[in-house]
Amino acid sequence: MIHRGLPRAACGQRLVLFAAAVALALYSGTAARADFSRLGKLADDGFAISAEARLLDGARETLGSIAPRQALSPASVTKTYTAAATLERFGPQHRFTTRLKSLAEAAPADGVLNADLWFEGGGDPGFTSEKLWRLVQRLHQAGVRRINGDVVVSQWRFGPVECATTDRCEARTRVDNAYSAPLSSAGVNFGSWCVNIAPGLAPGEPARVTHCDGPPSLVSVDNQVVTRPDDSDTRISAERVTTDHGDLMRVDGQISANAWPRDEYRGASNGAEQTADTLTAMLERFAIDVSGASRVTTAKPPDAAQTLAAVEGKPLQELILRTLNYSNNYMADVLALNLVETPGAELADAGRALESYAAGLPGHGEVTLESGSGLTTDNRTTAHGVNVMLESMYHQSSLFPSFVAALQSPENGVMRFIRRGPESFQHNVMLKTGTLNEPYAVRAMAGYFRTAGGRWGVFSVLINGDRSTPYLSWSKVLEPLSADLADMIDTH
Residue 57, class by beta-carbon neighbours within 10 Å (0-12 exposed, 13-18 middle, 19+ buried)? Predict the structure, then answer.
């Protein structure tokens, strides 16, 4: 309503000011909610929370925080420290090299190698049977047709690495997963055996089980999988057990007659011995005779040994992408062990190398790292410390592209459970998750975001339960966290 006697221009000015005040009030109300207030309600259920989100430019404004300097378990968010430390140490294009060596001459005229053949593990976390095949192929191309000696697998850099978690200790005799695989600088296929299971020729017959990387004799198989009629449910369980005669893959269940073959991976009991068996099988397939036996050692190849064949692994930036995207514990711990310069490294040594890296980051603060994978709740850091590390990587223009590319976008990440939440969370965030359920629940997430105004930010959230807190599903964490981050993104 226009008051009598009030000039029209003055009235219009008051309306503009009123509208601006309303908009400011609405914005202020939204901005006030741009914190971790939703996520913080998990504390009501007894969960400890350390969280921090802040911008990386200008005044480096903190957008939200909950006990940011409280040290908690980061679970697999630990892998971001491993990725950052190895990128700084080796560079994105570094390749780990695996070699075959011998004291005999490189190209024997009669094709006979009158000496032991040494396999020198290069600490390549991505060394697979494909690379091993290429290595043996190059030995064959060098003219070797017979080895008058032993096949010696050297894991002098590190291995066998002592188990530091319950899962890995139990896996020495029995395991039903691949993430507890043994660690070695001479490992192959992520320390795991692989068998392929295909339907039998008719319902009622046993499934056909073959080894993914070699002859049936490579690892023993107890096949109890039965073929069922078309369109039946396929349910397969698999475990690796260690017997007096070596590793045994035990598979059970059923497979539909029209189902596609499927691979099952289970950790081996000894990584270097698995490599020795696989290498021997591949030498046989290339018709390279071996007069001696295969054995494993922690000794280095003789100084006078010549390189007969060598293969380089994938660039470090590609290894890190796989490590973070798939949260590969084997790859993360092997990468961290490579940070240790002295031979015979253990996980505690790798942890100290990571702690040394974190200590060199100004303002990082408290940190305890027992492994590079985060497979143990003994690892401790703070949300503030994680953000300091993330900011350090952001400012290193030669490393940041490789680092951030290894994180996941919620919208199309490998981990399907993160494909939820508001649109700005889905599109404007790159992250790494961490999950542990024993001995208590850990849910962690950290990474980068871009605000609506194009500004870069970092965030870290560590949530720990205890033995008395209830099971914590990711949906219970993601719903409030994604909404809180979306508000921060939208209002800046």
Answer: exposed
CB atoms within 10 A of CB 3: 8
DSSP alpha helices (H): ranges in 261-372? 271-285, 316-325, 329-337, 347-359
CB 233 within 8 A of CB 261: no
Helix (H, G, I), strand (E, B) or coil at 51: strand
pTM of the model: 0.91
Strands laid side by side in the 112-113 sheet: 112-113, 146-147, 289-290
**Predicted confidence (pLDDT) per residue in 421-458, tens digit:** 999 999 999 999 999 999 999 999 999 999 999 999 99
Q: Strands 306-312 and 97-102: what pairing?
A: antiparallel
Angle of helix 383-394 relative to helix 78-90, nearest 10 degrees, comes to: 30
Amino acid at 450: R
Vertex 429: Cα angle to 426 and 433 (nearest 5): 95
Answer whether 138's CB lies under 8 Å from 282's CB: no
Locus of tokens 């009991």:
269
CA distance 37 to 62: 14
3-state secondary structure (DSSP) of residue 436: strand
Token pair for residue 288?
């390279």
Instruction: Quote the CA–CA distance of 408 and 390 in Å, as a whole number.
Output: 15
- Residue 180 token pair: 């507890």
Query: Is 123's pLDDT higher than 70?
Result: yes
